[in-house]
Each structure stands twice: as structure tokens, then as C-alpha cells.
Amino acid sequence: MGEPSSALRSLKSILRGELHRRRWTMENLERRTGLSHVTVSNALNEKSANIPSERTINLLADALKLDRAELLKIHQEALRLNKQSTRASPDANPSGSGGHGNRGGTSVDRDATVRSVARSGYREQVARIAPPRLVGRDAELEEIREFCILKESPEVYMYWRAPAWSGKSALLAWFVLHPPPGVRVVSFFVTARFASQNDRVAFADVVMEQLANLLLEPIPKYLSEATRDAHLFRMLAEAAEICQQRGERLVLVVDGLDEDRGATGPQGHSIAALLPARPPAGMRLVVSGRPNPPIPSDVPDEHPLRDPHVQRPLAVAGAAQVVRADMERELDRLLEGSPYEQDLLGLLTAALGGLSAEDLAELSGRTARQVIRHLGTVAGRSFTTRAGRWANVSSNVYILGHEELQDTAIEEFGDRRLEGYRQRLHAWADSYGQRGWPPETPEYLQHGYFRMLTATRDVPRIVACGTSRARHDRMRDITGGDTAALTEITAAQDALFDLPDPDLKDLGRLAVHRYSLVDNNSHIPPQLPAVLTMLGQPTRAEALARTNPKRIEALAGLLGALTSTGDYERAETLADSLTWDPTSLARADVVEALAKAGDYDRAESIAGKIAKPFEKAKALAGVARALAQTGQQQRASSVANLAEEATHSIPEPFEKIQEIIEVARVLARNGEHERASSLVEIARKIGGLGDPLLITWARVKIIGAIAHLGDYDRAENIARSISDDEDMRSRALGEVAEGVAQAGDYDRATAIARSVIYKDLCAQALGDVAMAAAHAGEFATAQATADTITHPAVRAQALVEIARMLIHNDQVAEASSLARLAEEVARSAPDYDVQARTLAAVARAAAQTGDHSTARALADLAEPIARQIGGTTSRARALFMVTTVLADIGEYDKAETIAHSIPYSEVTDDYPKEWALTAVAVALTQAGDYDRAEAIVRSITFPLVASRMLAKLAGALARAGEHKRAAALADEAEEHARSIPNRTLRMEALAEMAETLAQSGEYERAASLAGQAAITARSITHSGRPESLAQIAAAKALARTGGYSQAEAIARSIIEPFDIRVRALAAVAGALAQAGDQVRASLLVSIAGADVRSIIDPDERERFLHPVAAALARTGEYGQAEAMARTITWSSRRVRALIDVADQADPAVARKILVTLLRDDDWSESLTTLVRVDPGAVSAIAEEFTALLV
After folding, report:
1. How many CA atoms lie within 13 Å of 731's alpha carbon, on the beta-carbon side?
2. How many other CB atoms are there within 10 angstroms of residue 829's CB atom?
3. CB burial class (10 A; 0-12, 13-18, 19+) of residue 579?
4. Hey, CA dihedral for 635, 625, 651, 1046, is it positive or negative?
5. Would you give the distance in Å from CA 549 to the centre of its chain?
């Protein structure tokens, strides 16, 4: 970017001096001008060469009471000096160079240093298309130039249409190389002769390469079908905005829409449909194509391409006809030439992509020099050269000179002869594939060859490429990412999907390879989009937020940042898209993200509307915490009061303690120690009641609160005194480290954090220390601490928070650097959670097919990975999955050992440790070891959990014929259930016991327990969620035991919450269907369906489709059930609903559903269903997985 000129430094010095004289903060100035933080910061930063716009100068002058005319005079001088500097620079890119070099002109609010900036070579490719001289096209060329530079125009598209050989490509190529001043051109020439340049993937890749060069940023990595379009649209918008800010215009030129092969494929995804209907920031488009084929069907009716006013007929150029005659004459000569000449032509025709001289020499048995000499003389006009696909490959490649020549050659050779040439290409590819795709593999075999396979629908070879790890590794070495490999896998899935009966084994193998490559977005901190917005990159930020696993939180943070930077229009548009949020807990995350981004008013407003006490308290505490961190003590105290009030209504003790402690911590940070201490005492009393887990869990939270109140020695001593549970001890020490860090003693806090044994909890504690230092403005300490964190995801989160605080401190350049580093670090982080769960899911499926050896190997791989998972809840669930696999295959000792090591989950009603122990006990029961099974379950002492587990074991014993022993355990389980003081929880325990015993055939006892649960259900007047959930359990138990009328009455009696009513009706309908009462079941499903259809809001309605779809499937209405499940847009819900439908359906319907599920990101969820439909596919998946991990 260079150094600021003297005039620019003077301008900024005046502005900053007046700001200091008035003793205003940056926030004052932002509020008075309505300008964003980034704009004001750049306008006043004397070290930055960014020149503010005239509008910015006017607004700042008015706010600071400065002379507009004087400031504008200096501003004009700064612009003049900048232009002189730009012209003098040897690297400057003149306006209108097509955007293929470094940017020139006035700099904009972007980073001065960007790593790995893309360099596009596409301009050189266009130069090969353009004629040496453009003859007879002055009028058309002038019309295009006028269209591009005209300030106001009713059209934003210009669509040239003419038959083949009219000179369309020559005209547009010439324009791309010679644009008028002030026009930046990005182009793509669709070429059917070149299989790698004739579909929307190629279009997006080539255009993004040019845009990345224009934006001075790297080409996006790890692109998938879901993210490629988003990145393209984001980059188009940013490039257009930058051009507009510099007084230029971005023009996108696309030649040859008629040659788009994607438009005619089975999936029907065209390049034309990617072209923006409403181009951003003054952007215009110039496109060309033949009158036929017509505009693709996936282009919307209202798209400008369909407007007759934008279409221009192009007369046939005389020069083009001369070239045509010459080319056709030479092609005829080649078709009738020597065997060698025919070979060259046949190979190039069959390849459907560029072959280099070296490629043709290897295929024909000649030297590269002979090939070059021959193609350059005998057939010079029939062929043209293009640059290689990848920048690090220097060889030019040959293709036929026109699409019509390609069509003629295909027709003349015929299918039989072309197949012979393809076989030679296949043999050539096999020779490299068998050697593991070595570094010397020709470019064509890594790119063009696969496009030829897809064009000829060679599915076995397509799948072979998509499942070759060595091939993917080589592509990563060349491109620096996995985008090319992911593109091949997606194309292979598409090819299989288009078959009448897709092979589930191949789809499963492709899913494994896709999983192995897609792991890059999982750890992008959801706060990063907000930071990028504050750094002036809102479009990119939104694209990143929409692909973030924590999408709601990321978008909410983005919304807050947009509001705090003054981008109200974009903020309101985004706010509208957040209204579909499916759960109150997610709304609490939205509120906290908004508050952290500075949008306190919106955050508090949304929090106040949350109905459920726990989520409301959580949301309000998040707002109060954000206010306290920014020094707004009075408002923080007021909001904390509201949060405290909400905690009074929380019925569940775990949740109540959690939020009371959170409010106490906020109050302590806000200086209100007396109030905070009283809340801690309340939490301590609640934590002293109930089961041991509650007592232990509450102890950890209270230790943290003591530290935040300033009693660090006491807190640390108590934490270190925990000797019976290392996980709880580690978590308590982490809480203490955070409290000490917030008091400013970073050395001691770091020492405490480092004493935590578990690596993930140690990393989290260090992250808390780093963030606390950043909040205190100790940025050197914060970054030094962050740099010592070995867990990439935690480090990335800490770096983003440091960057956020740097922005608030007006250190924009440093923040920008850290934001980039955070993204790089996050993308390097493996997703241990997904890895472990996927391994365990495949292992379980292998076990279900009887392949215990593979199951054992995969489980052994999954366990150490699971132990590296950061979140306690996720780690517990992954270890639970591993335990159940080992128990299923008879590894009881190891399974029990792992089960005992499972940490207590933060989601305290999951009880993964207890469920894991019960799974081991059930497996032992099935193996006949009843004593050991009973001993394991009796070790569980929590009444609520013990009743469930004992009942489950009683059912297993009953199925094993041990009825006397089963009855004794059932008695004990019932005794545990009756000892539960909370009426709602007691009813739920009785109902679950009834359902468990009914499944085991103990109908008489089950009916008795279900009746007792029903009596309790009818006595409950409070209609909260816990009570209603328990009523569902009672209804299901009654239905299982034949009490259909009572079950239906309970389900119908539930009015609110609405989702509980729908689930209850669906559950009873399912039980009726299983019992054979299809008429009654269908009636209840109809009622549930009518309830769902009555919901006006489509996003709200979608929440209830899953249980209704599952119930429909149980009544045998598979078609309706599948159709309903497929309307669910939330991916994980849709997958779960489709799995439930497939589980009920016959194998043919289930197979059809599995074809789509195996293409989903959550494909491993469907493996249990796959075992039933195609166990061989499970074996193939397990084998592929094992091979990848070796």
C-alpha cells in the first residue's frame, strides 16, 4: 500500500488533533457521524495510506466543527499525490487492465499485507483466443465500451447472440484485453472442447482466481458444492464494491453460454444460473451465446438474461468465415492423413481436454519436439494452445481450434474409434495410478482426464478416482488444498446418483473419503465473522458465518457487529433471517453474541422475550457480562438483576445453580461483591441437596465463583483438595485460573492453568487467561499466552477475542493480522469429536454385521481420539459410543474401564457414564454373566438414573429368561423411582420403566407402572416443558402396554408447549401402528399433521415435521413420510427424520433413502439402517476407513 503522502498525513493530523482537543472518544465520533468504527479509525490513522472518501471528510468536518472547504482542498491534494505515486510505481496496474495484475488507484480499507495472494494467469489464456487484429467490429466494440462506462443504464446485462463461426469469442476476447479506462474486467470463456472449462465449477474456479487477484487475497481453500457459490458471490460483491469506491466499474464477461455442459447434464446446474440477477455495486455483465440451445431452465424467469431488451444480434464477421474455411480444410486433411496425424487428432478429440506435447509424445511413441513441429506446421490452424490449468505447470496444452471442429471430428471418428483412443488414455492413466500418482503425473491426468470420465459417464473409473487417497494427496500438493479432490468426490456421487440403482458400497466409500477431507470449517470461531465485519469485510464475514457449524451464534455476532459499525441496512436484512431460530437455547446464544458485538439494545430486547427461565437467565447474564466487560456498570447491574429474577423460576437444580453462579460472577466483575457472595451462598445450599453428582458439580461452580470474588487462595486450595475425580479437579482449577487472570495476576493464573492435567482443559484455561489479559488491554501478555496454547481450536478462539479487543483499542492493523492467523490456526485443527464419533459409528455398524475384528480395530482407534475432545459433554458422548461398541463385541473389561473413565457431562441429564455402564451390563446379561451385570448397575447410586438402569437390566434379564431375578431388579428400580421427591421426575422415571419392561414382554408389571405414571400425570397442573415431557413418557408407556385410550387422552390434553403435544400424538400413533391399529394410528397422525400445518411461520412449522413423518412411516405411509421428511431444511433434523422413515420402510424404500443419506455430511448416522439394507456396504465402508487410517 505504501506510505501516506504528506497531504494525507496533514489531513489526518488535523482530524485527530481536533478529536483530542475536544476530548472525545472514537465512539463519540462514530455516533455523531454515523460512520463505522473501521471507517473512522482509518480516517484518523496517520500511519495508514488509506484515503477517506469525500463523504467521510464532510461528515467528520461537520462533527468536529472544522472548515469543510479547507479539508477538501487537502483531500484533493492527497488524491493527486496518490495518483502520481501509482503511475510512478513499476508494479502499478493501470486502470482497465482487466484486473489481472496488482491493484492501482486509491487504496481502500483493506489489509496492506495479505499472505499467499492469488496470481491469475487467465489473461494469457484470453490472449490466445483473441485475434492478432480485430477487423470489422468497431461499432460493436464501441457499443460494449459505452455500455460499460455509462453511469446510468436501464440494463445491467448485454447479451450478444449469434450462430457458430460469427466471431463472438474474438470480439469479447479483444474487449477483455483492451477495456476502456475505469473498467475492471473479469472473464470466462466457456469451451466445450476443453472438458475442464465448460461447467459452473470451472467458471467459479477461474473467476474466483481473478477476483482473488483483484482483492489481494488467497483463493478460498476447501471449497465444496455448498460453499463454492457462496465464496464466488462474496468475492464478486467485494470486488464490485472496491471498484466502485475507486471510481471504477467491475465488468464480468462470459463467452459461450451455449457451450456450458453443466446446463444439459442430469443435475441441470448451469453457469447462467450463477450470474447475479441484481449485480452488486454498479457491476455489469457482457455475455454471449448462440440462439440455440435456449437459456437453461434453472435460470429464473425474472433473470435479466431472459429480458429481450438486453439481447443484441451479432452479424457474422467475414474474417471469422475465412478462419472457418481454413480450419475445416486442415481438419479434412488430418482426417485423411497418415496414421500418426490421425492419432494426434483422435487423442485430442477423445481427451476432451488439453494435452501437452509431452503427453502426446508419451501416448504416440514420438518425441515432444516431433509433436510440436507437426502440430505447428501441418495442422497449425486446426489446433490452438492454452496455458496449463495450474500455475505451477509450465507446459502449454493443445485443443481443437473451435467447438464445431470438435463436433465434426467426433462425428467422423465414430464411437468405436474414439473408444479405442479412450482406452489408450485409460491405460496411460492406469500406469500412473498404479504408481500412486507420482509427482511427475501429467496435469491432464489430474484434471482433464476426470472431466472426460464424467462427460462419457464412465462410473467405475470416476469412483476409482474419487476413492484414491494417493490421487487426493497429489492434488493437494499441487493446489495447496483439497478443493479439487472434493470436487471429484462430489462429481462421483452425482454420477452414482444418476444411475437407476446406485451402488451403496461405492457411495459409502466416497462418503468416507469426503469425510477425510472435509474437516476445515469445524473449528472456525463463531466470533470471527463479527471481527471481520469490524475490519471492513462484511460480505466475506457473512459467507464465513453461514458455513460455520455454530451458524446461529456466528450470524448473531455478525448482526451485532453490523449494527455497531453503522451498517443498518445489511443488519436489518440479516436480522430478518434469524427469526427462524429453532430453540430458546439458541436464542440465548444469539443474545450473547449480539451483546459481545456491542448491540446491547437488540440483545436485551430479545432476551426479555425468552419464555423459558433457564434460557432467559443465561441470555440476560450474557448481556450483563458484556456490559460489565466494557465498563457500563450501571446498566450491567440492572440487567444482572433481571437475570437473577429469572433464576428464581428455574425448576431444574443443575440449571438453577449454573445460572445463579453466572450472575454472581458478573456481579463480582462489576464490583458488587456483597450481592455476588449472597448468590454463591444460595447456590451452595442448593448444591448440598440431591444426588452426589449435583453436589460435585455444584462444588466446581462455587469454587470458580469464590475465585471471581477475590478469595484466590481459598479457591485454589479447595480445587486442589479434590482427589477423587481428576476431571472435576481440572475443571475447578480452570475456573480458578480464569478468576485470578481477571484480577490481573497473569503469572499465577498461567501457573494454575498449566497444572491442569487434562490437555484440553489446560488449553481452555490458558485461553481464558489470554482473553482476560486482552480485556484488560494487556495485549502482549494475551498474545504471548495464546501462542503457548497447543490446542488449535482453543488458540484460534483466543486469537479472535484478542483481535476484537484490539479493534476496540483502535489497533486495526494488528487485529487484522491476528484475525487472519486465527483462521489459519482454526483450519489446521482436526475435529476430534467428529473423528471419534464417526469411527465409533462405523465400528458399531461393523459389529452389527459380525465383523468383530474390524469393529475392535476401529474402536481402538476411536478411544484415544475421543479423549482429546475439548468439550466435556462431547468427550463423554464419544467415549460412550466407544464403550457400547466394545461391549457389543465382548470386550467387557475394556468397555467397563472406559465407562468408569467417562467424565460427567455438562449436559447433566444425559448421564453418559451411567448409560455406558448399563450398556456393558446388558451385554454381560446377554452373555450370561448375570452377577457381574447386576454388580455394575448396582454401583449407580443416583435414584433417577438408578431406576432407569435397573429397569433396563431387568428387561434384559427377562429376555434372557431370568424372570425371578428380573422381578427383583424391577422391584428395586421401582423403589428408586418412588424415592424421587420431584413429582415430575418421579412420573418420568415410572413411565420409562414401564416402557422398558413392556419392550421386554413384562406387560402386566409395565401396565401397572404406566397406570401409576398416568395418575401422576393427571395430577400435574403446571404445563411447563419438564412436566409435558414426562407426560409424553407416560403416554408412550400406556400405549406400549395396551392403554391406548388413556395414552390418547394424555396426548390430547397437552396444549402447550406445542411441540410436546405433536410429539405425544405422534408417539401414541406409532405405538398404535405397532399394535396393528392402523385406523386409530392414522387418525392421530392426521391430528398431529393438522396441528403442524396450522402453523403460519414456515420455519416454526418445520420444527414439528420430524415426529409426524416418523409416525406416518409407522402407519405404512412411506411415500408421504419420506416426502415430509425431505421438506425439512435443517440438515441434522432432515437426516434423523429420513433415518426414522427408512427404519420403518421396506428395503426398497430404505435403499432409495440411503442413497441420499450417504451423500450428507451426517452420513454416519445412517449406518445402522444400512446394516439392514446392505451389510456388504457397511463392510466396504469399514474396510475403506481402516485403509485410510493405516
Report:
1. 19
2. 19
3. exposed
4. positive
5. 5
DSSP state of 509: H
When mean pLDDT is compared over 349-358, 556-565, 882-891, 1038-1047, the highest value belongs to 882-891
- Spans of all domains in the chain: 6-88, 122-316, 318-436, 1057-1160
Handedness of CA 374, 380, 383, 384 (dihedral sign): positive
- Render pLDDT for 312-360 as a digit per residue (tens, 0 to 9): 888 776 555 555 555 656 666 666 667 777 788 888 888 887 888 899 9
For the chain, what is the total number of helices (H) and then of strands (E)?
Answer: 60, 8
- Among the listed residues 40, 5, 43, 12, the one whose alpha carbon sits nearest the alpha carbon of residue 26: 40
* Alpha helices for 368-447 (secondary structure H): 368-377, 403-433, 443-446
Contacts of 241 (CB under 8 A, 6+ apart): 280, 281, 539
Mean pLDDT, residues 969-990: 78
Check residue 366 and report its DSSP letter: S
The DSSP H or E segment spanning 952 is helix 943-959
d(CA 13, CA 815): 22
| Distance of alpha carbon 1003 from alpha carbon 1016, whole angstroms | 20
Name the class of domain 122-316. alpha beta
Sheet arrangement for strand 249-255: 183-189, 249-255, 284-289, 157-161, 311-313
534 by Cβ neighbours in 10 Å (0-12 / 13-18 / 19+) ranks as: buried
What SS3 class is residue 288? strand
Separation CA 130–CA 110 (nearest Å): 34
* 1057-1160 has CATH 1.10.8 classification: no
Q: Give CA torsion, residues 392, 398, 403, 405, to 10 deg.
A: 180
- Encode 876-916 in three state secondary structure: HHHHHHHHHHHHHCCCHHHHHHHHHHCCCCCCCCCCHHHHH
**pLDDT(88) > 60:** no
CATH topology of domain 318-436: Arc Repressor Mutant, subunit A (1.10.10)
> Mind listing the pLDDT tens digit for each residue in 1103-1156?
778 888 888 888 888 888 898 888 887 777 888 899 999 998 888 899 999 999
| Residues 446, 65: Cα–Cα separation, whole Å | 64
User: Do the domains spanning 6-88 and 122-316 agree at the CATH topology level?
Assistant: no
φ/ψ of residue 708, rounded to 5: -70, -20
Is pTM, for the whole model, over 0.85?
no
Q: Name the pLDDT band for 520 (thresholds 50, 70, 90).
A: low
Specify the 3-state DSSP secondary structure of 29. helix
Determine the angle formed by the axes of helices 892-901 and 912-926, rounding to 10 degrees.
170
Phi-psi region of 831 (alpha: psi -120 to 50; beta: other; left: phi over 0): beta
Q: Does domain 6-88 have CATH number 1.10.260.40?
A: yes
β-pairing, 183-189 vs 383-386, is unpaired
CA dist 584 and 588 (Å) reads: 6
Residue 442, preceding peptide bond in cis (omega within 30° of 0):
no
Alpha-carbon distance 717 to 665, whole Å? 19
Alpha-helix runs per DSSP H in 249-295: none
CA dihedral 339, 341, 344, 346 (to 10 degrees): -60
Cα(1000)–Cα(1013) distance, integer angstroms: 19
CA distance to 15, 354, 512, 762, 1133, per residue, from 706 (Å): 47, 70, 48, 20, 41
pLDDT tier at 198, thresholds 50, 70, 90: confident
Give the separation between CA 398 and CA 387, rounded to whole angstroms.
Answer: 9
- Contact by Cβ (8 Å): 207, 260: no
Q: Would you state the pLDDT for residue 557?
A: 83
